[in-house]
Design the sequence.
């Protein structure tokens, strides 16, 4: 179930983050977040609390974007 949506700004770009709550078969609550970085490029994280997700996302998302940018670079030919 969607419980919250917010915007996350990274390097002058704004990304939408959706937070979801689910109940496990044992009756405990788990939370997940989904951030869409681009067409077909999503990052999904989970945690036992929304606060934990927010902390993970603040640390993981910038590095994930940096990694995507580095992977997209084409190495220059050696001279």
Sequence:
């Amino acid at each position: 179930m969607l419980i919250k949506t917010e915007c996350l700004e990274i390097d002058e770009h704004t990304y939408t983050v959706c937070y979801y709550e689910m109940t496990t078969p044992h009756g405990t609550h788990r939370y997940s977040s989904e951030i869409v970085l681009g067409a077909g490029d999503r990052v999904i994280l989970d945690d036992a609390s929304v606060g934990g997700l927010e902390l993970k996302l603040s640390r993981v998302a910038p590095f994930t974007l940096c990694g995507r940018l580095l992977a997209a670079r084409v190495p220059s030919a050696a001279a």
Notes: The helical segments are 50-72. The chain has a mean pLDDT of 87. Residues 33 and 45 are 5 Å apart (CA to CA).
